[in-house]
Design a protein that fits this description.
Blueprint lengths: L1 E5 L4 E5 L3 E5 L4 E5 L3 E6 L3 E3 L1 H9 L4 E4 L5 E4 L9 H10 L3 H24 L14 H23 L15 H23 L18 H6 L4 H14 L13 H16 L8 H19 L1
Parallel strand pairs: 1-5, 2-6, 5-7
Antiparallel strand pairs: 2-3, 3-4, 7-8
Helix pairs in contact: 1-2, 2-9, 3-4, 3-7, 5-7, 5-8, 7-8
């Protein structure tokens, strides 16, 4: 059995169903899947869905690594035996109208929750309900309405400073705090996906390049407003309690964010439900939908 470690930039992997084809500037070769123990991929490798399907069929795990070389993810389902059948159905659904409808529904949920946040903040702007939109329209307009939300949300939370949403190396505490909260939410939802044998990398709306956890980015959409509301609640508390944010994303501030996140997600407050249950139920419903339609 052979373990392949592929790191050469712009290497392309393809498949004919029984053999893995590897091609770049220096090599053009192939391996039979039945002789492969595992495949380790560097950050600049491209592979298509046929490769992934064959790896599931022959129970060959694929591992992804960053530039530093440490492993940060894999196709989980091959190690789950019978559970890999669900991931195969997930793969078969990529690019179908079912996946488009799913992702559009999640975006509608996101914007409905964001509308409630803006209403709570007394912002005179209402995001569309999207109820009369086609799925393709919802997906196409996501970016524009995200921008409208961030313009108003960040201005309120920063006390009148017009900030822009920054995902990498944010210069301000509010963007940094949002990224930190999203990170905790990513981890939580990824665990739920794995429990249901869903592959976090096999995205519907965010693409199937396999260089990111695309399906995780799809299904997290309706829950992003949870983090946005947590930060608003903290901002309100800061008006009555002494909270030091002068040191940016300090250890103390991270502890505060983590505590608020845990309370918001796992504990009942004025609501009769646990938000973790809402997340778990959506993942469960999604897994069942994929089983039926994949």
């Amino acid at each position: 059995m052979v373990s392949l470690h592929l790191t050469t930039k712009d290497t392309i992997l393809s498949s004919d169903g029984t053999r893995l084809h590897i091609k770049n500037e220096t090599i053009d070769t192939h391996y039979a899947y039945r002789y492969l123990a595992a495949i380790y991929l560097g950050p600049n490798i491209t592979l298509n869905s046929n490769v992934i399907a064959a790896c599931y069929k022959y129970n060959v795990p694929i591992y992804f690594s960053r530039e530093q070389g440490y492993i940060y993810g894999s196709t989980y389902a091959p190690g789950y035996g019978a559970g890999s059948a669900i991931a195969l159905k997930q793969l078969q659904m990529v690019g179908t109208h079912h996946t488009q409808e799913l992702c559009a529904t999640w975006l509608v949920m996101k914007f409905a929750r964001r509308s409630m946040i803006l209403e709570h903040l007394k912002v005179k702007y209402k995001l569309p309900s999207f109820m009369d939109f086609e799925s393709s329209e919802v997906l196409a307009k996501e970016g524009a309405y995200d921008a409208q939300f961030w313009k108003r949300y960040l201005r309120v939370i920063s006390n009148g400073i017009q900030l822009k949403r920054v995902k990498r190396d944010p210069p301000d505490i509010w963007n940094a705090s949002l990224n930190y909260l999203y990170g905790m939410l990513y981890y939580l939802i990824e665990k739920e996906l794995i429990k249901k044998h869903l592959d976090p990398y096999m995205g519907f709306h965010h693409g199937t390049s396999r260089k990111q956890k695309a399906f995780l980015f799809d299904i997290i959409e309706p829950f992003r407003p949870f983090c946005e509301e947590i930060l608003i609640n903290l901002r309100i508390k800061m008006k009555t309690q002494k909270v030091d944010i002068s040191n940016g994303l300090s250890i103390e501030w991270r502890k505060t964010l983590a505590t608020e996140f845990h309370t918001y997600i796992y504990k009942k407050q004025e609501q009769r439900f646990l938000r973790i249950k809402i997340i778990q139920n959506l993942v469960k419903e999604t897994a069942n939908y994929i089983k039926l339609n994949g």
